[in-house]
Amino acid sequence: MASITLDHLAHAYRPDPRGPQDYQLKEINHVWRQGGAYALLGPSGCGKTTLLNIISGLVTPTTGRILFDGRDVTHLPTEARNIAQVFQFPVVYDTMTVRENLAFPLKNRHVPRADIVRRVEEIASRLDLSAVLDRKAQNLTADAKQKISLGRGLVRSDVAAILFDEPLTVIDPHLKWQLRSSLKELHRALDLTMIYVTHDQTEALTFADTVVVMHDGSVVQTGSPEELFLRPAHTFVGHFIGSPGMNVLPAEVRGRTAYIEGIAIALPSAYPALPPGARIELGVRPEFAELTRAGTGVPVKVRRIDDLGRTRIARIEIAGHAAAATVPEGLSIEGDAAGLKLEPGQIHIYADGARVAGEGGA
Amino acid sequence: MEKPINNRAWLLVAPVFLIVAFSAIVPIMTVVNYSVQDTFGNNQFFWNGLGWFQELLDPSTELGGRFFAALWRNLAFSAIILAIEVPLGILVALSMPREGWKVAATLVVMALPLLIPWNVVGTIWQVFARADIGLLGYGLNWLGIDYNYTGDTLSAWITIVVMDVWHWTSLVALLCYAGLKSIPDAYYQAARIDGASRWAIFTTIQLPKMKRVLLIAVLLRFMDSFMIYTEPFVLTGGGPGNATTFLSIDLVKLALGQFDLGKAAAMSLVYNLIVLAVCWVFYTVMTHAGQDYDGNRRPQEETPA
């Protein structure tokens, strides 16, 4: 049981990093609370696996420290840290039975035999593996194998945190839900810190209490799924989370009005502190942009309407810029001209990608 | 579904059939023909039925005696070199570098013995091990060790075994190395997290993953050593006495030395059947091992993380 602190952590794979471009992982300060369920979300190559491997000790960071409950473990080897890790592809020991697989980490740590037996039975029943305990691990399905790799972490009573590196990649879609909810149950039952790396927003948002979004080697936002949705701190978060992602449109802000290619949009607050020369953008999620009849709201051009079953999403153009909006029930659009109504409280202004807080908001 | 029948398809099969007939069937049938006859020269042949085979498989006869002696000798040789080359090959593979320029350098050095013509290997060791002028032979005798592979059975065997180990361990090592390289890093990382010792990593990860290449290595090395001819022929000529006369050397002595075509034909057919039988056993074992592997395809082998 431990909280994990990342203190000015950075990592470069080349031995002599000169500038920020050489760092796969830019400086990170973060505390993973004991017992939290975290997701590390980002596209492939954003450094999330590197970060995970640094926490588990498979990679030593170039600079900075990792503390477990305040104890510096930066240079401790993996086996000396109380960490378990589940990999993208299930790792099982082919020649062993499921029981032997689960007992392996305990046997290596010279735990008394009676304790091993008890622990293995307990974890196996938690993971629904009791029925296959004496089968060869090699012949099981991918999801059972992934449970075994997880089980090898759970049997250790000293484990402080379990790290998951895209653990559902090779699992059949209909089993993903099942496995993910059993993960959540385990998390509640065992009071373990879990860090879950994924590039799938659904996985991240359903699993985690706190989602850490990474982009290009740095953390762009840390927050609850709701915060990520309602207040994306970076245009990247807006794009990456949500389906379809947030509309981001180049704009000019004057007082309480934003202008997109001359089209005025009223803002809920003023932005006097916008840095001069910065790239200013307006962001609004399609969920808060509603299509209306032509002649009302912001004039837009409708390209097509996608019926997603429960909702309809319109692909539109605002002054030539592509965007998406919801189509309210009962609205039918004739031709390609329509209007757009934006929910005022849900409009965000970004300077060079980062969200700028408004002043004097309603 | 109905199969289209077209007799012209035979035209496509015919060339293969012709080639196989002239390369395999006709020569083998010639041997079969010899094996059931006896000749006293002059191209006169007499029918002998299964006489040669009966004699060959009866250890109390002169022919059977020398056949079984050579067979046991050959099996002992194969067993010894396998017992040395397989563990040694694994050991070498484990200690080979896994990345960087050293990989290429090691691979080249390892491949060198495999590239030398067998005749030359025999000659190298023939000279190298000579007690009068060879570095090895002279050195051993200088140290006070009585070593002479042309006169002493033990010396001859040791020399042939060492020569084979020198020549072929690289092959086993390279195959094992390929097997080791195909193990994804996640396995080693998981083992570290599980606190596995170096020995546990070897027995639980590396050895199981090398099973298939090891089977191939054992098969190749067994067949090759079971059919060995050139190197011992150049090195010892089968001597001293008959101490290193393996099956193929004996066969040549019988066929070309004594010109006993009937006996030699019978012997080569039995020899051939043994080789086929061993191959079949290995093939069966290997396909079974393969089913375990492919019947339940493991994606980690396809996509390195």
TrEMBL record, chain A:
Entries under CDD domains matching the protein: ABC_Carb_Solutes_like (cd03259)
Cross-referenced SMART domains: AAA
Cell compartment(s), UniProt: Cell inner membrane
GO cellular component: ATP-binding cassette (ABC) transporter complex, substrate-binding subunit-containing
Domain of life of the organism encoding this protein: Bacteria
UniProt xrefs under Pfam families: ABC_tran (PF00005), OB_MalK (PF17912)
Gene3D superfamilies: 2.40.50.100, Nucleic acid-binding proteins, P-loop containing nucleotide triphosphate hydrolases
Domain named ABC transporter: residues: 4-241
Membrane-topology descriptor: Peripheral membrane protein
Coarse class of the protein's main subcellular location: membrane
Molecular function as annotated in GO: ABC-type ferric iron transporter activity; ATP binding; ATP hydrolysis activity
UniProt similarity note: Belongs to the ABC transporter superfamily.
Protein name as catalogued: Glycerol transport system ATP-binding protein
Taxonomic path: Bacteria, Pseudomonadati, Pseudomonadota, Alphaproteobacteria, Hyphomicrobiales
TrEMBL record, chain B:
GO CC list: plasma membrane
InterPro entries: MetI-like, MetI-like_sf, Sugar_ABC_transporter
Keywords: Membrane, Transmembrane, Transmembrane helix, Transport
Subcellular location: Cell membrane
Pfam entry (one): BPD_transp_1
UniProt main location, coarse: membrane
Top-level taxonomic group: Bacteria
TM segment ranges: 12-36, 75-96, 103-128, 156-180, 213-230, 264-283
Signal peptide interval: none
Domain ABC transmembrane type-1: 71-282
Record's bilayer topology term: Multi-pass membrane protein
GO biological process: transmembrane transport
Gene3D superfamilies, per database record: MetI-like
Family of the protein in this entry: Belongs to the binding-protein-dependent transport system permease family.
PANTHER family: GLUCOSE IMPORT SYSTEM PERMEASE PROTEIN GLCT, TREHALOSE TRANSPORT SYSTEM PERMEASE PROTEIN SUGA
Record-given protein name: Glycerol transport system permease protein
